[in-house]
Amino acid sequence: MSDYLRPELKGLDPYVPGEQPTGRSYIKLNTNESPFPPSPAAVEAASQAAKGLNLYNDPDSKALTHAMAQRLGVPDECVLMTSGSDEILNFAFLTFCHSGCPAVFADITYGFYKVFANVNRVPYETIPLKSDMTLDYKDYLGINKTIFIANPNAPTGLAISRDEIEEIVKSNPSNVVVTDEAYIDFGGESSVPLTQKYDNILVTQTFSKSRSMAGARLGMGIGSKKLIADLNTVKFSINPYNVNSMTGAAGIAALQDEEYTRANCRTIIENREYTTLKLRELGFEVNDSSTNFVFAKHPLISGEEVYLKLRDAGILVRHFTPENIKEYNRISIGTREQMDALLSALRVITEEIK
User: Fold this and answer.
1) Tens digits of per-residue pLDDT, 119-139?
2) How far is CA 283 from CA 7, 73, 152, 348, in A?
3) I need a labelling partner for 305 at 20 to 30 A (CA). Which of 196, 252, 268, 351 fits?
4) Cα distance from N-terminal residue to C-terminal residue, the chain
């Protein structure tokens, strides 16, 4: 740490991404990436767009925004494309939170929310999940704060209904409710229809999971025209050319190849249900997931021990250290072959305790 760092940032705890290994080849089930490559059409479109990298990209991402808006069934003015959903979430903290309007989110949820609050000097509060790790929507009714809800939630994998989100939105008319739908294509009800009914809901989504484009960094926000206009003011003050030409072209092509996306999602859901069943047969407690991962623990083996033994076996999963979830591991859903390799390794681990 240098002597030049702003004093208020010296205590900042940055977000810690999932491990990206080098050297040894691992089965990588730790960062919720898709096990499938992007649509061939998206790869070809990105390749063609690379020929024009000497020119600036469209700062409004008009063609991509239009394609996304059509897919969602909303006006173009209600969509803002961003460099991953992390960017639109950061914009939301910058735009809708301040000293008189703190942020609020669950105590067990996407770890970046706390970082966004801290780096933007925004006060925040956390609301505990229930003992079964579900989110009680009633805890958010009429609290008059900017609300962030990952739905389905990470790392628990659990979702609440659109009706429950609507109750939260209705009860906080003077505040924005941000619904982070990074995993919505694997389960749960999208709140996008609510954006055409209420002025105070922002829905965020991403191409990283279901559309196999984590490395491209493409996300979006969907909200009322006025809400999106507010966010565009921030975007054009920070990073007007935020979606590069290759990513934009790949995004359009991916949207035009929707059956490829849906087929991959169906396979991941099938593999998730298969893995959940087999994990329970091995004695693991597993949440009913609506995502492309499962959250699991074993009553007789610590979460850290499971993580380390799997790592030694060449399989990476995500282990968290907070006290209330340290016995769990988050396991991304891969191909059937990858999941069978995981289950085979876990059989060995569970046999050792018998």
Assistant:
1) 999 999 999 999 999 999 999
2) 49, 44, 25, 13
3) 268
4) 48
Q: What is the homologous superfamily of the domain 17-36+259-351 according to CATH?
A: Aspartate Aminotransferase, domain 1 (3.90.1150.10)
For residue 346, the SS3 value is: helix
Task: Express each pLDDT in 311-333 by its tens digit.
Answer: 999 999 999 999 999 999 999 99
Strands (E), the chain: 27-28, 79-82, 103-106, 124-127, 146-150, 177-180, 201-206, 219-222, 285-286, 293-297, 315-316, 318-319, 329-332
For residue 126, list its beta bridge partners. Answer: 105
- Crossing angle (nearest 10°) for helices 245-256 and 62-72: 30
Q: Is the dihedral of CA 96, 102, 103, 104 positive or negative?
A: negative
Q: What is the CATH number of domain 40-256?
A: 3.40.640.10
Task: Return the closest-CA partner of residue 145 out of 92, 80, 203.
Answer: 92
| Angular region, 93: left φ>0, alpha ψ -120 to 50, beta rest | alpha
In sequence order, what are the beta bridge partners of 180? 150, 204
Longest dimension (CA), the chain: 63
CB neighbour list of residue 312: distance below 8 Å, 6 or more residues apart: none
Q: Are 242 and 235 in contact (CB under 8 A)?
A: yes
Domains 17-36+259-351 and 40-256 share a fold: no
d(CA 74, CA 34): 27
- Residue ranges of domains in the chain: 17-36+259-351, 40-256
